[in-house]
Design a protein that fits this description.
This protein is mainly alpha-helical and 404 residues long. The chain is built from 15 helices and no strands. The protein has one domain: Amino acid/polyamine transporter I. The termini are far apart. The relative contact order is 0.22. The mean pLDDT is 83.
Length: 404
């Protein structure tokens, strides 16, 4: 068991990146507002996004190159489009996950109630971790974080279940009206993660293969499946917590990420008991810190690789340039738009969903074409699921735009 855990890598990094705002904020809110009524959306989005995420490590280990290398082979315009899309969203995404982590740190550690200061501290700690060990250290740390997160979340769900006297139904709900549909699209946008995380997966798979020559394509798919199952399971857990603790509570959530986390923990402890405060706080904090840390590593890694491919030359310290650029840009956004963070999170999640069809189509085209060895191209079943997934993503995007 321990040997198998040690062999895991990019799949757990995927889980660490995915289990963040989508789970702690969006899944909890889905449970609070709709009870178990959006379970259908949770399962469907995991099903229909699955192939496009899995194609990241599959392509990387089958070819020895990242999805970004593959995008360039499909045409320079594809890679330039990715560069523009990522540049437009990376700062808002990093700001969103960092400020939620900061709000949780305030509740867990105290020290200062200033979310900007905590955001600086968290970003600085993340930089130190990445400077110290980059992929290897991140790989080992994520195993501890995911294990801690899983245990504390399961304990929290069990206590919430035995503590509640409410009755619930599993009647599924299709949201109506602009606000509810907007929430559904935001929920789907980052559940379990934005589709561009598939690119991060391919880069992590390349790094893993450098350190483990036995990390084959078959092992990479197994590794990813473990991480994906964890994200689905914990998504259900957080939706369940939101249902048990907050559904029909009458609480109106703040759009401030910091205040939201305070309300979140307060509602949990009110229902479950103050004795469980530490479990709730640790589960929530590890959820968000893992996302903040993996995003801080992955976006600069992807942008560095993109610039290298577009310029056709290796530029020294490009990774560190992008990581500092991301950190500084994130702090500027947090300083200038702190009061609008709720809106920024919503915009970021909706943009992630609206751009998802691009990544889905490109990933499917690449894995099914001449640039991927025949033996690792998708089966007929995976191709059918991919076509359904593309239809699902485009269909919901059009539905949302029609209801604006």
């Amino acid at each position: 068991m321990i040997k198998r855990l040690k062999s895991l890598g990019p799949g757990l990094l995927f889980a660490g990146a995915a289990i963040g705002v989508s789970h702690l904020v969006q899944s909890t809110r889905a449970g609070a507002d709709f009870g178990f009524g959006l379970l259908w959306a949770l399962f469907l989005v995991h099903l229909f996004k699955y192939p496009f995420f899995q194609y990241g490590p599959r392509y990387a280990t089958a070819t020895g190159e990242s999805l970004l290398d593959g995008y360039l082979k499909l045409g320079k315009g594809v890679l330039i489009t990715y560069f523009i899309l990522n540049l437009a969203t990376m700062f808002t995404i990093q700001a969103a996950v960092t400020i939620v982590t900061a709000g949780l740190a305030i509740n867990l550690f105290g020290v200062t109630t200033n979310p900007i200061i905590w955001s600086l501290i968290i970003t600085f700690i993340g930089l130190i971790i990445l400077i110290k060990g980059r992929y290897n250290f991140l790989d080992k740390l994520m195993k501890i974080i995911i294990l801690t997160l899983t245990i504390t979340t399961i304990v929290s769900v069990l206590i919430a279940y035995f503590s509640t006297e409410k009755t619930f139904t599993f009647t599924q709900i299709l949201p109506q009206g602009t606000l509810e549909i907007g929430f559904l699209i935001a929920f789907l946008g980052w559940m379990p993660a934005p589709l561009d995380v598939s690119i991060w997966q391919s880069l992590w798979a390349i790094e893993k293969k450098k350190n483990d020559s036995n990390f084959t394509t078959k092992k990479s798919i197994f590794d990813f499946n473990i991480g994906y199952i964890i994200t689905l399971f914990l998504g259900i857990c957080f939706l369940t917590l939101g249902t048990f603790v907050m559904h029909n509570s009458g609480e109106v959530f703040s759009n401030s990420a910091g205040k939201f986390t305070q309300q979140l923990i307060s509602l949990y402890t009110t229902t479950i008991g103050d004795s469980m405060y530490l479990f709730i706080a640790i589960a929530a904090f590890t959820t968000m810190f893992s996302t903040t840390l993996t995003a801080l590593d992955a976006s600069p890694r992807a942008m560095s690789k993109t610039v290298t491919l577009l310029s056709n030359r290796t530029i020294k310290n490009m990774y560190w340039f992008w990581i500092l650029f991301l950190a500084i840009g994130t702090m500027l956004i947090l300083t200038l738009f702190m009061s609008e963070m709720g809106t920024l999170i919503k915009v970021a999640t909706i943009l992630s969903f609206l751009t998802a069809p691009f990544y889905a189509i490109i990933n499917f085209t690449l894995i099914s074409g001449k640039h991927t060895p025949k033996e690792w191209q998708p089966s007929i079943a995976m191709k059918i699921l991919s076509y359904l997934g593309i239809f699902f993503l485009i269909g919901f995007s059009v539905w949302y735009l029609m209801n604006l």
